[in-house]
Specification:
208 residues; mainly alpha; 70% helix; globular
Length: 208
């Protein structure tokens, strides 16, 4: 049982378990009385919260979608912040970032199903690389406003983050590897597989 008292293991478990909290599902059930796992794309993210709740209460849908984004982003940041204050090294912080996204995408509370990891990914990456994340958010905003396709904007922003991370940090401080970024990117792209299929066939819905 000694490994359970290891600070790294404790933070890794916390990152996965906290990251797995399905805030979108909880908020939609509590305040709108709908199960987003049974409607729309069946994702637990903000886009599906907006799309499903909007059918019942448009004004409430926007509020719940915003709350979902903020909570999904903050849950990864919260564990990282505590770990940072506890003096954990960058290697541990990056592992926490990866596990928080994994928890959201493969939630232990939803039979290892979950969301697409965008908001949680933005949260942890903003904590680790705020300048690179700022660039990615600009790309996301521009693509979102012009194309109005949530998945395409998210994937475009992810690509921008990867490129910008190599330009600004060709050698990532203290870990000397872009591996955590690539792991997060692979998970997010994998969770967007249905969206990518719909994009290629021209069937992906625009955000109204």
């Amino acid at each position: 049982m000694e490994f359970l008292t290891n600070p790294n293991i404790i933070f890794y478990l916390a990152a996965y378990l906290v990251g797995g909290i399905p805030f979108g599902l909880i908020l939609a059930k509590m305040f709108a009385g709908v199960d987003i796992k049974q409607s729309g794309s069946q994702s637990i993210g903000a886009t599906n919260v907006l799309r499903v709740v909007k059918q019942k209460n448009p004004a409430l849908a926007k509020k719940l979608a915003i709350a979902t984004v903020l909570l999904d982003a903050f849950k990864g940041i919260a564990v990282l912040l505590v770990a940072k204050l506890a003096g954990m090294p960058d290697a541990t912080l990056w592992a926490i970032a990866v596990l928080a996204v994994a928890g959201h995408c493969f939630s232990p509370y939803l039979m290892f199903e979950g969301g697409k990891g965008v908001a949680t990914g933005v949260g942890v990456l903003a904590f680790m690389m705020p300048d690179v994340t700022a660039i990615a958010l600009v790309v996301w905003f521009v693509l979102g406003k012009t194309l109005r396709i949530s998945s395409l904007a998210s994937l475009g922003a992810l690509a921008a983050f990867i490129v910008a991370s190599y330009i600004l940090y060709p050698d990532v401080p203290n870990i000397h590897s872009h591996a955590p970024i690539w792991i997060i990117a692979i998970v997010v792209v994998y969770k967007h597989t249905p969206n990518i299929v719909r994009l290629l066939s021209g069937r992906e819905k625009r955000v109204a």
